[in-house]
Design goal:
alpha/beta; 2 domains; 15% strand; elongated
């Protein structure tokens, strides 16, 4: 099922990785030049490797490797969603940190009073926290923004 899909992108697809995380998909960015090490990591962690390098398709690889043809982020995201039949579930949006890919945890509104801008505090009822980078995300505001667009 699409909910269990995990991805590994090469560095040229870092923006795509951020959007996949926003949608709730476990996605890491390979920090070095795409090559054998990227494929080994994808295989070890059972991730789908996403790349913009055509030459990667010529390599022997027992896992799943996909060449992303789209040039801009909108076409790349649409392409990956369609290719892997990814679902967009409101309950999973903003549940993974966009910076580090860690799972976010809910925190009480009163616990973030002095930690977020006053506008965010006034307009959000739900908050999530990344345990690694200690970022607070106002899920309520994000959901409101998404439903109004």
């Amino acid at each position: 099922m699409s909910e269990n899909k995990k991805f590994l992108t090469d560095a040229s697809l870092a923006k795509l990785a951020k959007w996949l995380r926003l949608l709730g998909y476990d996605t890491i960015v390979f920090p070095r030049t795409a090559g054998r090490d990227l494929l080994n990591l994808a295989c070890t962690e059972k991730r789908i490797a996403l790349t913009r390098r055509r030459d990667m398709l010529d390599r022997q690889f027992s896992g799943e490797l996909y060449f992303v043809a789209g040039i801009d982020i909108e076409s790349q995201l649409a392409e990956v969603i369609a290719k892997f039949s990814l679902t967009i579930d409101q309950k999973k949006i903003f549940r993974i940190c966009l910076k580090c890919n860690e799972r976010l945890f809910p925190v009480r509104k009163e616990d973030v009073y002095d930690l977020v801008p006053s506008y965010v505090f006034a307009n959000c009822s739900e908050y999530n926290k990344c345990p690694a980078v200690r970022v607070f995300i106002g899920a309520g505001l994000i959901n409101t923004m998404l439903s109004n667009s």
